[in-house]
Amino acid sequence: MRVVAMVVIALALSSARAHANVLVNGDFETGTFAGWTPFATSANGSIGTTVGGRAIVPFDVTGSGATDAARFQVGQISFTPGILEGGGIRQTITTGAGMAVFHADIAAQETHGTGNAAGGLFVVLLDGVALASFDFGFIAALDTERSSLDFTAPVTTGAHVLSLQMTRPFVSGALGISPFQYFDNVSLNVSSVDEPATLLLVGLGLAGIGVSRRKAH
C-alpha cells in the first residue's frame, strides 16, 4: 500500500509538472507589460499610445467581470487603402518537447457611437506560424464584441516565440474613433513529463512489482 501511495503521489506531481503555464504575466496581473515585448507589423503599423491605446486597464473581456487586461488601438500610421497594419506583443519561452495548449480571451470595443468597419483581426503565432485567428469585422456603435483564441500544437525542446497580433486596414486612433482591442487570460500549457519524474515513476513501479512478488511467495 505504501508503494501504491508513493506511485499515486508521483503521478500527481508529474501531472502538475506536465501542464505548467510557461508564459509570464499572461493575466497582466502586474499592471504592466512585464515579460512581453511590443512590436509593430511594419514602420507604418501602430498598436496605439499609452494615453489612448496601449495600456493595462480594468476591462470585462469575458463578459463575467472586469479584470486587468491589455488594451490596444491598432492600425496604420499613414493611411494606405487595403493594407492591414498594427502589431502586438510577443514573449520568448523555453519548453520541453510535448503538446502546447494555448488559450486567450479577446474583445473589441467601439466607444464613440459611430460604428467601425474593422474591430480588428486577431492572430496568435508560434515561431511565426499563425495557429489561430479571429476577425471581429464590423463593430456597431458603442458595442463590445468578445471571443477567444485557442490552439493545440506540438512543440520541440528549446526556445519559442509566442506573438499576439492585431491588425486593421485603417488608421490607428483616426479622429479618436478607432475601436480598442483587448487580450486577457493568456496561457500556454505544455504537456510533457520531465525525465526525473519519469525515472521516479519507473522506479516506484518496479518497487511495487517487487513487493507484489514477495507477497505472492
Helix content: 10-25%
* Strand coverage percent: 35-45%
Sketch the topology as an H/E string, one letter per element. HEEEEEEEEEEEEEH
Task: Compute the CA-based radius of gyration.
Answer: 23 Å
Distance between the termini: 17 Å
CATH superfamily: Galactose-binding domain-like
Query: What are the segments in which pLDDT stays under 50 over at least 5 consecutive residues?
Result: 3-17, 198-202, 208-213
Number of domains: 1
Number of strands: 13
The CATH class is identified as Mainly Beta
How would you describe this structure in keywords?
single chain, 217 residues, Jelly Rolls, six-stranded antiparallel sheet, five-stranded antiparallel sheet, 2 helices
Characterization of the model:
The protein is of the alpha+beta class. The chain has one domain (20-192): Jelly Rolls. It is 18% helix and 42% strand. The protein has two helices and 13 strands. It has helices at residues 2-18, 195-216; strands at residues 20-21, 37-40, 45-46, 55-59, 67-72, 75-76, 85-95, 98-109, 121-126, 129-135, 144-155, 158-168, 180-191. Strands 1, 4, 5, 8, 11 and 13 form a six-stranded antiparallel beta sheet that branches. It has a five-stranded antiparallel beta sheet with strand order 2-7-12-9-10, with no helix packed on it. A two-stranded antiparallel ribbon has the order 3-6. Strand 4 (55-59) and strand 5 form a beta hairpin. Residues 3-17, 198-202 and 208-213 have low confidence and may be disordered.
